[in-house]
Amino acid sequence: MSATLTKQPLTTERSSSYAARIDHVSKSFGRPGAQQQVLDDIALDVAPGEFVCLLGASGCGKSTLLNLVAGLDKPTAGSIDVPGGRPALMFQEHALFPWLTAGKNIELALRMRGVPRGSRRTEAERLLGLVRLNGSYGKRVHELSGGMRQRVALARALAQDSKLLLMDEPFAALDAITRDVLHDELTRIWAETHVSVLFVTHNVREAVRLAQRVVLLSSRPGRIAREWDVEIPQPRRIEDAAVADLSVEITEQLRGEIRRHGQH
Amino acid sequence: MASTDTRSPGDPEPQHAASASPIDAGNTVNTVNAGRPGGAGGKGSAAGASDQLAGLEAGLDALETHTKTRVPLGRVLLDQVLPPVVAVALVLIAWQLAYHFEVKPHYQLPSPAEVARALQDKWLDGTLLGYVWESLSRGALGFAASLIIGTPLGLVVARVWFVRAAIGPILSGLQSLPSVAWVPAAIIWFGLTNSTIYAVVLLGAVPSIANGLVAGVDQIPPLFLRAGRTIGATGFAGIRHVLLPAALPGYIAGLKQGWAFSWRSLMAAELIATSPELGTGLGQLLDQARVDSDMSLVLAAILLILIVGIGIELLIFAPIERRVLRSRGLLASNR
Ligand SMILES: Nc1ncnc2c1ncn2[C@@H]1O[C@H](COP(=O)(O)OP(=O)(O)O)[C@@H](O)[C@H]1O
Ligand SMILES: [Mg+2]
Hints:
By secondary structure, chain A is of the alpha/beta class. Chain A contains 7 helices and 10 strands.
């Protein structure tokens, strides 16, 4: 059975050829005179339904770029276009509100999106089901494990019903077993929801495990060093030989980028 | 190009989808058909794999979730009630001993029993609750007014940099000014009226409440504000759904302190501003007892002031604070 699913350009609104366009974006911090350029001329499109991993060493500007795409900050030069409206954003820390239950956290996102009161509860339960947390509606954030919190955070991000999901090292603080499981879940949910994902990580294997395309950023300033199309079919496992092979190749390149900085 | 518009569906049949995934010819990356180790031959059904994942996840969740054990009520009483009872008993014993050995002449230091008798007399002639009620209702009204003024004030100071720069330091400075210092000024402005008393209470409590809210807002992790903005809670919705709830622990601490300041200021005002039209609260009772050189009654009044102050704190603010902190997992459980 050729169970491939052809992704149409998203039907509603103006149909764009991209879910996000990062158009020659640069970003500097600091006062004029004592400026530090963090991002330099980044040009990157995320296609509708695409899963892109942004890979780079710590401090290379990955979070900065994601914040720009999320609209939390403005680029110094260049522009960013996200045609599907405000993107959803997931952080390394779950960022769930501790004064609300898991379900109410999701409902707040639904409410802000304008979902009518009557259907919020059902929708929140559905989203919890999607991340396999049925029955956790009334749980407080501190009663959940790290992996469960990140799943609730994912459900809250999905509650925004955004066409673009930005993820900033969302699994970096989890133990390896939990992270592995969440990789499987994310792949499944990505396939079910047709959302476009821009996923930031410094973990090469994680990038290869998840992405259709891996984009390597160099450091200081952050530039796109190289891209790889990952054609290994899903579902992948992090310990697959093909994942390992490509990871070795990318790691070599990444190390080369880092080594350059020790040479002056 | 990577714009593969096709993708394998996640759940329906992963094994098949895997082999059906489109692979552009001439790609730089070697494509390896990596089946799941152990799942070679595509035997396990998709549903099976999904079930396995769900099972694994359920196991992880169960392992990492802590079950709470409820402490029995008897234990709580023993832990929380016994220590203060012991402390009070020790104070009474020391007091009785001091009386017994006449550390001070009896008219200056009456015995605990004499103070109790003074209280009993006031109870029996039916005036005791009147004094308490007079002060308590003033305190409550003054506190409520301070709340209504202090909350928006704190919010504005916390969020508008200009206002903060302008009056922030004054507001925290006011906290260290004993509010009894306002009494003479208030008497000159308002005479011996209730306005004087309320003015002193407000000047004592509003800064604490406002400062508590400012501190609460300042302590909000920036991550919450960013998370709020990404889900679209901006402007008024951001204040209502993110800022205020996030600042609640600091705000409640401010309220608690605000009550203490209200009560303290009220007693100072009542003690000084005594006049027949003003009614008699605990402060006035205390002053009357001083005028009559009735040391038992002086001590009884002090005791009442203390009990009311502590009682409100224990019966109203402590439970609210505990509830808020516990629901956020911020309360270290006893032992
Ligand atoms: N608000 C800011 N002001 C000044 N410098 C910043 C700011 N945010 C990030 N930076 C700097 O930008 C660089 C990249 O940071 P970041 O995007 O967080 O890196 P990454 O997420 O890749 O680890 C770092 O050197 C950091 O010090
Ligand atoms: Mg980062």
